[in-house]
Structures are given as structure tokens and as C-alpha cells.
Write a structure and sequence with these properties.
120 residues; mainly alpha; two-stranded parallel sheet; 5 helices
Amino acid sequence: MDAFAIPDLIIKKRNGQALTTGEIKYFIQEVVKGEKGGIQQCQLGAMLMAIYLKGLTDEETVCLTREMINSGDVLGPWPEEWKGKVVDKHSTGGVGDKVSLILAPALAAFGMKVLLLDNG
């Protein structure tokens, strides 16, 4: 893998330039490492601010999403008969999330395989 430096990636994004696939992959790997030798919290904040202010191209968004998915455990593989029927109603937590109570059984009634994941 190419050698990247987080400050250089922050500057690049701050200046409105698109990040490469390799740069995004490196960024996510450093985020996952956390304080065990990865990105510093101030650097993460600076990158998120640069992304917020300058935006992401469609390609960057797809790449970032894919790398975030691949950075953790991925459920599956699913049985072939479930193809196109697996859905998730992800909850960010908080008090008063009543949507899951109604949505999950409704989707299941239509034959969907419903995963209810939370961040807790």
C-alpha cells in the first residue's frame, strides 16, 4: 500500500480535491485503529469538517461507504432464497424510537428477513 499521511489527506480534502481509493482506504484503516497508533481525534475532526465543508464526489462516497462496511464484521452469507429480501432497520439509539416496533413486523409480514441492529 502507498504511504499516506493523515495531515496531507486533510489538506487535500480541505482544498476541495477528491481523495483516491487508496487514500480513503488508508483513512478508514487509521480510524479503525483508533488510539492504538491510528488517527488522532483532532485529525478525525479536521477531516470530517473538511468533508462537510467541501463534500464528497459520488465515487468518494461509494468508496468511503464500502471501506466502512469492510472495516467491520459483515453478516452473511445468506441462503440463496433470501436474496433481495434481507433488510435492516438500524437504530441510532435514543429514547422514543417507536419506528422499529411497527416497521419490523410489517416488513416480516411481506416476507422480508428483518435485522434489527443498534449501536449499543
